[in-house]
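Researcher: Next sequence.
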Amino acid sequence: MSGKFCISLTCGKDNTDKATVAFVVANAAVASDKDTVVFLNIEGVYLSQQGYADSIHEEGFAPLKELIENFVKAGGKIFVCSPCFKKRKLDETTLIEGAAIVGGAKLVEFMSDNCPSLSY
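Model: Next structure:
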């Protein structure tokens, strides 16, 4: 791949517009041959749970569930903030496909080689 790209997503159902746009951009990045990670943190960790994104559909965009699935199918990775996940007492057995619970060191390792990033 020709470089890396990271999107930090802090929103879920509390701001469905930001959550949707984050995955639209993530899909564009992975389609541009970037090694792409979406880092779910704060309220964004809820998107790591099966069924959570099913009802999110912003006008003018594909449904969020579809955006997430397409991102993973294209080779995108989803990192889930371990402390944020634990704080919200979420269930590791119901992670969506492509999601991995990680600590900060894993994110720093990924971003250590001139990795541009966006935050939503």
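Model: The radius of gyration is 13 Å. The mean pLDDT is 96.
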